[in-house]
Amino acid sequence: MWYLCVFYHRLLDYRRPEVQSLAELFGGPGAGDAVEWRMPENHHVDSPFHLVRLPGDERLAAQIANRSKSASPDRLIHHHSLAKLLLAGLLVKGIYELWGQGTTYEELERAVMAYPEERKLPYLTPESTFKIVVDSFGKGRVNLKKPDHKFFVMETDDYGCNNGLPPVAQRTVFFGREVGAADRHLLPTYQLKSRKYIGPTAMDAEMAFLMANQGLARPGKLVYDPFVGTGSILVAAAHFGAMTMGADIDIRVVRDGRGPDCNIWSNFEQYKLPEPLCILRADNNVPPWRPGLKEVFDAIICDPPYGVRAGGRKSGGRKLIKGTVAPYTVPDEKRDSHIPSTAPYSLAECVHDLLHLAARMLVMGGRLVFFFPVVREDGVANPAKYPEHPCFRLLASCEQILSMRYSRVLLTMVKVGPYTEEVEKAAEERRREFRENHHKWMEEGNLHSAVFSPADQAAAAADGKPAIDRDSKPKYRGKYV
Amino acid sequence: MRLLTHNMLASNARGAVTGYPLKLQVVKWSTKEAEPNPEFLRGMLPKIDWPALVAATQALGLPELLPEAPPTDAELSAEGAAADEGSALRRLHRALLEIHIEEGSLVCPDTDRCFPISRGVPNMLLHEDEVRN
Questions:
Q1: Higher-confidence residue: A460 or A247?
Q2: Which among B132, B4, B23 has a CA at the least distance from the CA of A224?
Q3: What fold characterizes domain A2-73+86-186?
Q4: Could you give the count of Cα atoms lying within 13 Å of A273 in the half-sphere of its Cβ?
Q5: Lowest mean pLDDT among A446-450, B48-52, B88-92
Q6: Which of B10, B97, B125 sits opposite A290 (nearest CB)?
C-alpha cells in the first residue's frame, strides 16, 4: 500500500535510495527495486513529503522507519553483542498511513471521513489511547507522552518562510497514523568531534552511516575499505554488526596513529565495537591478494582519495615514473629501513582499480559504495561521467554539492556479472594503458586545479563564457542541505 | 594480524611466480577471545586455502589445532558446536579469528622478500624497484 513518507530536510538526494536499501535489507532480494515513489500534488521533489509504496506489509514500513526494535529479524541481531543497534533509516522522519489530505481543514475532514472505516476502527477502540501530534514544515510543534497510537496532522504552507525550498504552490494538510518514526539519538555519540582518532578527511558520522546502509552492512557480512584512513566508514559498518577489514597505503595512519591509545583500534574500543578482522598496509594499485582468491567481501565501501583535499599515492617512485632518475635498485643493507617512494595516483586509475577490485572480490549481489567527484557544469553534475563496469549495475547516485565548482556523488553499485577471464584480461590491458600514459591521466583527472583555480582563469578556458553562471544557482538550498 | 588475513595475502613483488603461500615467521603472538559466528565461518570456509591455514598453525607450534582435512558444513552446523570448545567450529574459529600475530614477518616463497608485521599490521607495500612493469 501507499504510505506518506516524511523525510528530514537534509541530504535530499540520499533519502529515497536509503529507503530502498532498507527495503532490500528487511524485505529481501528485489524489494529495493520494487519500491515505488510519487509526490503529493503540487509538491516539489525536494519537499519532505513523499508518497511511497512498499513491497510488503506494515511491518516492513515500521522496520524502515524504526518504530519497534523488536520487529527487527532475529537473524540480524543474532551475533551482535550490542543491543543498541541503530537498524533503520537516518533520513526518514516518519512513515504514516495517510487517512486523508486536503488544501483546507474542511477538505481534510471530508477526506478522513471518506477513508474506509475498516482501516480506521482498529485504532479507535475505546480501550486504546492515542494522541494527535500537530506537526508542520516551517511552524511550531506540540508534543505529548507515550500513547498507543499516534496520529499526525501535518501542514505545509509558505507563510513567508520557505525553509530553503521553492515557494509552496498550494497549502496541503495531511492526516495520518504513524507507522514508524526515526531514531537519530545515536548520531551525537558517533560525531567526529568526540572521536579520539580522526584525520583531515575522516568521514562525517551521519554520512558514514548512510554509506554503511547503502552497502547493506549487517551481522554476518564482511565489509572492506581499501582507503581506510582512521577507519571512520568501518566504524559505521561495525556498528551495524558487520565484520570489517581495511587497508591504507600510509603506515603511519594504520599502524601508529597518535600513540597506543589513539589509533584505528582505539576508535572501535571507544564505541565498544568489535575490532576489524584485519588492517593492513597495502596499495590498491598493486593489491596483495593471493592468486585465485575472489568473492570474499559482501560490500566495499570507501571514499577514494580524489585529489581535492587529499591526493592518492601509488607504488613506484615518483622520479622513476617521471624519468628524472634511471631505474635503480635499493641496496640490500638498506632494504629494511628504506621508505618506499610513491607516485601520484590519478583519479581515473584509482577508480579503475577500485572497480576491478570490486569485480573480483565482491560476492555476486555484493555492493560497491563510493564517492565520486564531479566538476559541476552549468550548476549540475553530469551523470554521463559516472564510471561503468560490465560486472556492475548502478543502483543510486546521490549528489552532495561541496562548492560552486564541484560535488561529490555517492554511487551505489551492485555486482550483477561474474568475474570472468575476459574481465580480468580487459583490466590488465587498461592497467598497461595507465602505466604507459601516466602523465596524460594525471592531467586529465586534475580535479584540484579545476576546483581551486581562480574563477577568471576557468572562464578564459571556456571561450570567454563565464565558467559559472551565478544565476543558475538555485535560490533555495536544495542539495546543499 | 589474524591467520584469516595470512590466508588471503600473497607477495606481488617483481620475480614472484605465485608469491603464495607466504611463510609465516612469528616473533610474538597472542590470543584474543572473540564471539564465535557460525554463519560467518560457514560462508568463509569455502574461500579458505586449507593446507596454507594448517601450515600457518604449525608455524605457530600448534600442530594439534586443525585436522588435515577441512571440516564439513554439517560439522560446523552441529548443535552445540559453538559452546563446545573442542568442536570443529570452535577450532576453526580459534585458528582464523582468535590468534593474532603481533610481530613477525611474511616471507615470499619465490623471492624470499620479507614483509614485516609490526604492531599487528602487515606491511605489504613494495619498494619502488619491486613493482612489476
A1: A247
A2: B4
A3: VC0802-like (3.30.2130)
A4: 28
A5: A446-450
A6: B10
A162 — pLDDT class (breaks 50, 70, 90)? low
List CB contacts (< 8 A) between A222 and chain B: 40, 44
Chain A residues inside the 8 Å CB shell of B4? 277-278
Across the range A467-480, mean pLDDT stands at: 48
**Is A345's pLDDT higher than 90?**
no
For the segment A371-426, what is each residue's pLDDT rounded down to a tens digit? 998 887 766 667 777 999 999 999 999 998 888 778 899 999 999 999 999 999 99
According to DSSP, the β-strands at B121-122 and A342-345 are unpaired
Domains A2-73+86-186 and A191-450 share a fold: no
Three cell numbers written together for A357: 577490485
Judge whether A391 and A319 are in contact, CB under 8 Å.
no
Domain-by-domain residue ranges, chain A? 2-73+86-186, 191-450
Going from N- to C-terminal start, the domains of chain B cover 3-124
Task: Just give the CATH number of A191-450.
Answer: 3.40.50.150
Domain at B3-124: CATH code: 2.20.25.10
> What number is the average pLDDT over the span A327-333?
81
The C-alpha cell of A83 is what?
Answer: 543491543
B118–A255 CB contact, under 8 Å:
yes
CB proximity list for B37: less than 8 A, separation 6 or greater: A79, A219, A220, A243, B93
Q: Where would I find the beta strands (DSSP E) of A306-402?
A: 312-315, 342-345, 362-375, 392-401
- Whether A417 contacts A388, CB under 8 Å: no
Residues in B lying within 8 Å of A, measured between beta carbons: 1-2, 4-5, 7-12, 18-21, 34-35, 37, 39-40, 43-44, 47, 49, 97, 116, 118-129, 131-133
Q: Say if the Cβ atoms of B122 and A281 lie within 8 Å.
A: yes
